[in-house]
């Protein structure tokens, strides 16, 4: 490719406009994907005109500066289009720096034999340049660490890795909607701001206007000081005086006009007093009542939080329209600095009426398989990039999960297998015995070593699970299930929900929770109760699983974690 | 239909299981939609077995209590399936109350001629009952107002109206994804928690852990009081003494063992002191610094808010991968008690690189048309319900918008038309003159009266628009556009973004905004800048437009507004 002789522009077959590659309907360019992602690699478009736009990945002058090669990417696919610009067409020095934005029009040509590309663009006109000063550009061509890129979160989508993650994330999101829509589920927007707490556990972010309102009051009080007690007393005196005047006039049977006038004055004095009294109450600082913050003055007249899960709310729809799901952001205010936790992350939570734990497992398995197959069908280019740069096994993993039936074992069986493994010499950091929750090391042993495929563990001990999970006939376990997959361990957690009114009421009380905040949830069991189940999939976990990337902060566009919420 | 003679169950043709209607893949029922939404209304399924599940809309005993008719709905479509249950099969009294959940198995039959239904279910087995006490059920069969239903937000999805809205909302959401995916846009999850303020305007909710952290400290201090100054002094003294011991031993050239031991004691004393000093600093109340709240101790070590728009953040992706959109919740802490405002609402915000205002208008028009067509193609049953119950014209409106080219006029032309209208006798509450923002009454006049179709108004005066909108060559207007539609007025607002570094920097300064918080946004213009544009569609406005419902609180599952955030 390098140094190959290039024909001069005037020898190019002049293509007519009717030979042009159809451009994107709402922009001034042909997506590069439309050229390069064809089965023929684009060679069938040779001779056609095209206007493309994108950013220069690499650029270099050749032939003593008589022309330049640019590798241009527009984000529509991981592949770059090679373009050749003649020095007669544009100032090549401005075009070659990495990161330069270019809009280019020209003719597609099959490059000389022996080159990697199957099509390239011979540029005839440069229609746009967004230049870059290479000395200042924060993300030059050199290989940058993902950690470094987190400090330039607004520019990192311009890198190959973060743009590939964006395409894979987009594909998984649309696959999610497609899967549930095809199965007749309704997408329900559960609330972000909530006054319920899903499990009585979990650190929550508070949502409030108390602080900003207090700041406003403080500013106002500085500009316009509040009345003194003397001001109030004076105003009270005036009301008293005006009142006496009215009384005197009335008892003296004065004229209607005089009485009306005096009443008007009294009213005015009263209004003035109440205004002063209102302002007198204004205090700097956040409003307090009985030694506590006065949430009666907050925006929602009560404490409000960011949701930790949409499950309880989406159940209200499952108990009315049968098959539903929610897919949205959820929040945890935990001070976790690990590579697996975010303060803001996305969850997919289906909920199915007239369905039990087995249906739940069937749905979870079908959904995960669908996602894997979707990526293989729609994102193989990006997956190749991931396999080359992050995780050699990621494509094989998708293929395996898409095609292998998931193992299903009870929690009791899982514990037995783990105890056996320990007897066989396997060492775990935390002890395994019936009744404890499985640690990540146990989960990964089961899926990665023991079965080497996805495993669904079901029927967990009641004591380690949430109040809403259905109590099994043994009274010791609940109808919960977790889906474990290689690379990330737990990908999905779900359960059949307790639909029996008395049982769930007793469970709430048993766990020391108050009934009152759950009355609405109990109503779903009081009136027309239905067998139902659901699960939650951590969307970023699915991305870690798919891409092989190690840190969750790199698979969400704008990561939020302790000390960090850029943009 | 009423009183029609029913054959006894034993005369029904015993259908084999292979004749059963295929049930939902992940639940124990055939969706009623699969039966009734067929072109033949279900009659072609006669003779087949089916297990259905749902909730009783109306139920009544007939034939002196020998059988009952139930109208059952499962949310899969607005239509109810009529079922007939024989008294020999179940206790009819438990089945007939409105709201009862039933799981029913039986055989589908064509009802006697002269009835409305084209298929009905003859029940052979009642597999589930979730009873209702009609005396206590909060939403009985009687017609309830939408206002009343807002007080039972957890049960209102069981009503015909709210479930129809849920299906229409679901359809519009999936149509949105389908439209943008088909046009090669990537779905980007912009952040909910943000430290940027989109326009320097708009009341924002604050997100904080300062208050809950302070509450934790207070509880802890009560349980475990902080050290006194004397405690600190004593600990300091101990450090001093231990230090002196180390010094003495060293100068006396004591044994290594003795020195090591004394150093260990010194280290321990120092650790104890620093622990005490740490706890000594704990103060009840929200942490302050220099007379202000100390956000350095907040979760993100700075003030954080709920986003008012994902636009600025999604631009970082448009400037890297070209065509993107975000679709998620946004927030305004405005004390608006109108039927058009919510504190939490959903927005669709595409952003397109290599595109100008014309492309933006083309995209907006194509998107709105696509949504309307989608509803006509996928939700006609629900739209019929809306037309019957809320807005006779709603289906015609969808048809008109789906098929009519939108009128496009400049702001200047719009003002001229409005001034003409005033001259012709039309009265508006607010004055129209060049330079003022159009009020809702003006917008509705243009789209409902003047043109009687959607209108796009473009090129607004610079002074009334945001800093990021591209300044036109006249220096007086910016490349902004609003899409106005009958019934709701403004449905979409968008603009071409200012891509010229110097121009946008000067605009920020001109508007009295600080540069520093926008440096990241300026970087997008500093490095490889690109012509780009985008718009925002208020998703609930689209629902008001489609359904004809008047209050925005009824088209979102869990409305949030001042004083109200149920569940």
Strand content of chain A: 15-25%
Q: Major sheet of chain A: order of its strands?
A: 6-12-13-18-17-16-15-14
Please give the count of helices of chain A. 16
Oligomerization state of this entry? homodimer
As a percent range, the share of helical residues of chain A equals: 25-40%
State the shape of chain A.
flat
DSSP summary, beta strand count of chain A? 18
Largest interface: A-B, 120 and 119 residues
Q: Unreliable runs of chain A, pLDDT <50, ≥5 residues? A: 1-17
Largest sheet of chain A: 8 strands, mixed
Cα end-to-end separation of chain A:
42 Å
Which structural class is indicated by helix and strand composition of chain A? alpha+beta
Whole-number mean pLDDT of chain A: 93
Radius of gyration of chain A: 34 Å
Pfam families (chains A, B): tRNA-synt_2, tRNA_anti-codon
Organism (chains A, B): Rhodamnia argentea
Keywords (chains A, B): Aminoacyl-tRNA synthetase, ATP-binding, Ligase, Nucleotide-binding, Protein biosynthesis
Protein name (chains A, B): asparagine--tRNA ligase
């Amino acid at each position: 490719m390098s140094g190959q002789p290039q024909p001069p522009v005037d020898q190019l077959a002049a293509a007519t406009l009717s030979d042009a590659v159809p451009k994107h309907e709402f922009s001034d360019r042909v997506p590069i994907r439309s050229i390069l992602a064809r089965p023929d690699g684009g060679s069938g478009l040779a001779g056609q005109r095209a206007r493309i736009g994108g950013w220069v990945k690499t650029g270099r002058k050749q032939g003593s500066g008589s022309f330049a090669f640019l590798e241009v990417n527009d984000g529509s696919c991981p592949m770059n289009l090679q373009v050749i610009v003649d020095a007669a067409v544009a100032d090549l020095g401005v075009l070659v720096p990495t990161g330069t934005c270019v809009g280019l029009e020209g003719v597609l040509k099959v490059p000389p034999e022996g080159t990697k590309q199957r099509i390239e663009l011979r540029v005839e006109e440069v229609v746009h340049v967004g230049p870059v000063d290479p000395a200042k550009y924060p993300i030059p061509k050199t290989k940058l660490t993902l950690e470094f890129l987190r400090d330039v979160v607004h520019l990192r989508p311009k890198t190959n890795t973060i743009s590939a993650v964006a395409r894979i994330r987009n594909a998984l999101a649309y696959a999610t909607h497609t899967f549930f829509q095809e199965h007749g589920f309704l997408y329900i927007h559960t609330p972000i701001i909530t006054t319920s707490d899903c499990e009585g556990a979990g650190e929550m972010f508070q949502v409030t206007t108390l602080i900003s309102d207090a700041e406003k009051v403080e500013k106002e009080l500085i500009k316009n000081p509040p009345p003194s007690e003397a001001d109030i007393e004076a105003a009270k005196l005036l009301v008293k005086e005006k009142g006496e005047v009215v009384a005197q006039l009335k008892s003296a049977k004065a004229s209607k006009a005089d009485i009306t006038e005096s009443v008007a004055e009294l009213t005015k004095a009263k209004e003035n007093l109440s205004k002063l009294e209102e302002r007198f109450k204004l205090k700097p600082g956040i409003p307090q009542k009985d030694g506590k913050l006065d949430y009666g003055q907050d925006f929602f007249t009560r404490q409000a939080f960011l949701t930790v899960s949409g499950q309880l709310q989406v159940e209200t729809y499952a108990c009315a329209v049968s098959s539903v799901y929610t897919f949205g952001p959820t929040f945890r205010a935990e001070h976790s600095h690990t590579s697996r936790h975010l303060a803001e992350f996305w969850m997919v939570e289906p909920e199915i009426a007239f369905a039990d734990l087995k249906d739940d497992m069937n749905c979870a398995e079908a959904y995960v398989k669908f996602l894997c197959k979707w990526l293989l069908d729609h994102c193989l280019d990006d997956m190749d990039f991931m396999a080359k740069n992050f995780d050699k096994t990621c494509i094989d993993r998708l293929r395996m999960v898409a095609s292998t039936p998931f193992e299903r074992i009870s929690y009791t069986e899982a514990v037995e297998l783990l105890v056996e493994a320990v007897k066989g010499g396997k060492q775990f950091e935390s002890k395994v015995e019936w009744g404890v929750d499985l640690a990540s090391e146990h989960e990964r042993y089961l899926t990665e070593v023991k079965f080497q495929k996805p495993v669904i563990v079901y029927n967990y001990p009641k004591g380690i699970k949430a109040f809403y999970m259905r109590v099994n006939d043994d009274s010791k376990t609940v109808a919960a299930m977790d889906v474990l997959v290689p690379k990330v361990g737990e990908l999905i957690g779900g359960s059949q929900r307790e639909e029996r009114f008395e049982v769930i009421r007793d469970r709430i009380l048993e766990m020391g929770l108050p009934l009152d905040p759950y009355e609405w949830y109990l109503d779903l069991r009081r009136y027309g109760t239905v067998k139902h189940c659901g699960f939650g999939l951590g969307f970023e976990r699915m991305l870690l699983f798919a891409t092989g990337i190690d840190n969750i902060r790199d698979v969400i566009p704008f990561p939020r974690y302790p000390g960090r919420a850029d943009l």
